[in-house]
Amino acid sequence: MNKITELFNIEYPVIQAGMIWASGYKLASAVSNAGGLGLLGAGSMYPEVLREHIQKCKKATDKPFGVNVPMLYPNIEEIMNIIVDEGVKIVFTSAGNPKTWTAWLKERGITVVHVVSSVKFALKAQEAGVDAVVAEGFEAGGHNGREETTTFTLIPMVKEKLQIPLIAAGGIATGRGMLAAMVLGADAVQVGSRFAASVESSSHDNFKQAIVNAQDGDTHLTLKELAPVRLIKNKFFHDVMDLYTKAPTVDDLKTLLGRARAKKGMFEGDLEEGELEIGQIAGLIHEVKPAAAILEEIITDFKKAKQEVVSL
C-alpha cells in the first residue's frame, strides 16, 4: 500500500483526470473497476447532469470514485450540495482558492485533493487542509498554470516542501512515465490525455482520432489572459494566433472564443472550429483502447520498467 492507494482505498496509484467532455460515468466507472480512481469531470456538466452521472456511476461500480470540480465555474454551490447529497466521498478541486471549499467538504466526511501548478499554491492547498495535492506540469492538456514549469522540475520542487501526499500530472501516459514521476517523489500519478482517447471517454470519435494522429509539437499553450489552455493546432488555434499579432484586449479574445467552443471541438467533433484540449503526451498515444486495457498496460509497463532500472 502506498499513501494514495490507502487514502482512496484503491488498488493502483493511478487517477484518471476529471476532464471536461471526456470524463462521464462510463469512463470513471471503468477506471475504478480496473483498480484506479475514476473521476467525473463536473466542469462540462450542468448540476442535474452531474447528479445523473453520479447516480449512474454508483450503479456501474462499487469501487471508490470522485468528482473533479473546477471552481471557476458558476453553480458551484449547487454542484457541491449535489456531491454531498449523492454521498460522493472524494472531490478534486481546481482553478480556484482551496480555502473556499476544503473545510466545508471535510466537515461532511469528504476527502479533498487540490490541483496546483506551483510550489506556492501547493503549500497554500496544504495550509487549507487538503488531503493531497495534484501538481500538474506545463505539458498537461486543459487548463494549465501560467508558470510553464514542467512536470519533471515541478514534482521534486513540490516534494521538497510538502508534507502531505503528492500526485503528479502532466505528460504521463505510460508506466515508464509513472515510474519517473514516482522516482521524483510522487506517490501517484494522474493521467488525462491517455484516457481521453479511451473507448469509454465521452469525447467525440473525431477528437479521439485527432489525439491519436497528433505528433510532438502539435499542441501549444495559449489564451493565458483568460485561462491558459493547451490546444491542438487547428483552424481555431491559428485564428487565435492571428488575433495575437494585433495586440488584442481580453474582450477581443473572449469574443473570438465565444461560448461552448470546447464542447464544439471535443464533444461534437468539429476539428476546425472547436477548441481541442490535449496534453503534449498525445504524441505517444497511438490507438483508442478500453480504459481497463489502458490501465493494465500502464501497470505492466511500470513493473517492467522498474525491473529494468533495478538491473542498471
UniProtKB/TrEMBL annotation:
Keyword Flavoprotein carried by entry: yes
InterPro entries (alphabetical): Aldolase_TIM, NMO
Q: Which SUPFAM superfamilies match?
A: Inosine monophosphate dehydrogenase (IMPDH)
Superkingdom assignment: Bacteria
Gene Ontology MF terms in the entry: nitronate monooxygenase activity
Q: What is this protein called?
A: Nitronate monooxygenase
Q: Keywords of this protein's UniProt record, alphabetized?
A: Flavoprotein, FMN, Monooxygenase, Oxidoreductase
The reply on keyword Metal-binding is no
